[in-house]
Write a structure and sequence with these properties.
Blueprint: H1 4-22, H2 25-41, H3 52-65, H4 69-81, H5 88-100, H6 104-118, H7 138-150, H8 154-166, H9 173-185, H10 223-232, H11 239-251, H12 255-263, H13 269-283, H14 291-296, H15 304-328, H16 342-360, H17 372-376, H18 380-398
Helix pairs in contact: 1-2, 1-3, 2-3, 3-4, 3-5, 5-6, 5-7, 7-8, 7-9, 9-10, 9-11, 11-12, 11-16, 12-18, 13-18, 16-18
Amino acid sequence: ESSDTDVTVDILSSVLQVYMFAGDYEEAVSVSKRIRAAVRSDKQTLKLLGDGHTIYNYMIRAYCEVDQITEALRVVEEMRSLQLHATSETYQILVQTMSSIRSYDGLKLVVALANVDYNMVDVEADSKSAIRPLPLTTEYYNALIEAFGRVAEPAKALQVWEIMRQRGVRPNNLTATLLIDTCGWNERVHWDEDMLAEATFVYRDIPEDHVYTGMPLFHLHYLANTLEQLKQSGLKFSLANYCHVLEALIRAGFLETALDMMISRYETKQAYEMWTEKSRVLRKPPKRQTLSSFFSMFRSTTTEEDVDADADADIDAEHEAEKRVQVAKFMDEFSIDIPLCQRTVDTVFGMIAAVRGQCAQGSNVEPENMPFVQRASQNLLERLELQEQRLDEFLRRHHPELLPNSRQGM
């Protein structure tokens, strides 16, 4: 026969689950307090909780949902005292909580606790009974990547990906989404609370004035390598992943690269070369005023040697500019074929409109809060218009069914 206390703990664990599924976290916390008190008074009641890990994770989440984070950490300590080892979900809950309040110190604490459990090995036990490392899941690492993005630590988010690779943790499409975002526009603080793999900027309700926030620091040079690593891991990119790649490229000013990945393989050679030449002209840096040409304005006559010197100086300046442009071509050694479909087409048109709208704000065509790569790019508005025209003409000629309704009558 069961005692009254036993029955109470058994019932309370069921009630806790009901409140958690209903989203009534205040009542869940109240029930959690009673369960914890019962277990403290008699540790044998822990056996009546069924899956103790699940119940304690429920309690931790309940405390986090009502902003009692310190109490949630106490529950983790109680788990340790009861020899109930924390799970990957335990730390995922805590990481997501620290992410939501953007607490870098709290995040470091949770990561340290998770690493302790991951590296915990009982050296005195034999190989059969030895404690195995905590199996941290893909969901935990995804939460960690997003959390480091929220606290403006993109470099650490990319380090998490390296740890995943070293530990043999397989990524999923949400991993790819978060990594692409980190490479493309990190330190943007207006993340959705529910970051879904299929939700891209164009399909999220983010005000235009929030498109560019935070410091203009990019890690776009990691994108090609990251995509290659994801591909080597066996991950099949989702349509949302391709949309995020397009967003990252267009935000950073790589308009031509984005369009090339999506439609260049369908264009005729003549059409491709025509658009490429037009793009090259717009991206060509303006001629710099050289000292020789400056002083020549004050001369009454100009010798043939002066003309040759000016021409050589201009050529040298153009060569130096071309070298800088070559540095920016980070995708030269890697390219992906982005599917041509309604979502990718809408993403491109949406991002072009968003960047154009940001450029139009204020009297400055290229405002200071725009990312550095875009601020430094040449003729951004003209390039936006050119690539928009390129896509529009291509769709009207080859795939009119993909042309957005808003452009049908244009």
